[in-house]
């Protein structure tokens, strides 16, 4: 797990910033609109790795996601199954966030959310193509969806969440290409993939 901080302190996406700004003061509710019930977890007992690890163990269903890091408000993940390579240097993937305290943003309660993000590994840029906001943690409840198929590209702040997530995604893509090249090399030697 990545220790708290530098990368998630500067959450980049505009909508996530709005959500995160409301986290500290947001009331915690115990029922969703429409009468559905959900679990409202207590925030971690401490903001260090052991406190967050215990919180994840007690409340979060990680599923097919890779945990990437956290800050005082959210925990980040990358999907391991909803991934679409778009050529040698671009990839589209769902980035998931679990909130330590639910946020109320207008009429929308947000316990977790995910963002369909396209990363350009060569340009160190990303764009957000879709957002899904869930009333409960673990991506549970009826989501509120927003789609932006023509979203503009943003250059990643080297210390920001998108640079870290993009770095992980791009490193995994290079590693996968290297494994594929090794498996296809006739003499079993390691063939180096093209750098992104």
CATH architectural group: Beta Barrel
**What share of residues is helical?**
10-25%
Regarding quaternary structure, how should these chains be classified?
single chain
Largest sheet: 7 strands, antiparallel
**Domain module count:** 1
Overall description:
With 196 residues, the chain is an alpha+beta fold. The chain has one domain (6-184): Surface-adhesin protein E (Lipocalin, Beta Barrel). 24% of the residues lie in helices and 32% in strands. The protein has helices at residues 6-9, 14-21, 49-59, 161-184, and strands at residues 65-70, 74-85, 90-105, 108-120, 125-134, 144-147, 154-155. Strands 1, 2, 3, 4, 5, 6 and 7 form a 7-stranded antiparallel beta sheet that branches. β4 and β5 (125-134) form a beta hairpin. The two termini are 25 Å apart. The model is unreliable at 1-36 (pLDDT under 50).
Outline of this structure?
The protein has 196 residues and is α+β, with helices and mostly antiparallel strands. The protein has 4 helices and 7 strands, in the order αααβββββββα. Strands 1, 2, 3, 4, 5, 6 and 7 form a 7-stranded antiparallel β-sheet that branches.
């Amino acid at each position: 797990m990545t220790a708290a901080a530098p990368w998630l302190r500067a959450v980049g996406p505009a909508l996530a910033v709005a959500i995160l700004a409301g986290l500290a003061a947001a009331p915690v509710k115990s029922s969703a609109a429409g009468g559905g019930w959900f679990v409202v977890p207590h925030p971690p007992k401490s903001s260090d790795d052991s406190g967050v690890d215990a919180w994840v163990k007690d409340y979060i269903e990680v599923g097919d996601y890779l945990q990437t890091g956290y800050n005082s408000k959210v925990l980040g993940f990358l999907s391991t199954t909803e991934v679409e390579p778009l050529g040698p240097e671009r990839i589209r993937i769902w980035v998931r966030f679990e909130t330590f305290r639910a946020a109320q943003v207008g009429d929308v309660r947000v316990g977790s959310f995910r963002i369909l993000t396209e990363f350009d590994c060569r340009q160190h840029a990303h764009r957000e193509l879709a957002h899904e906001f869930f009333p409960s943690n673990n991506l549970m409840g009826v989501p509120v969806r927003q789609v932006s198929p023509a979203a503009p590209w943003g250059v990643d702040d080297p210390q920001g969440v998108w640079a870290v997530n993009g770095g992980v995604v791009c490193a995994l893509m290079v590693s996968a290409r290297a494994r594929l090249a090794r498996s296809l090399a006739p003499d079993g030697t390691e063939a180096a993939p093209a750098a992104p």
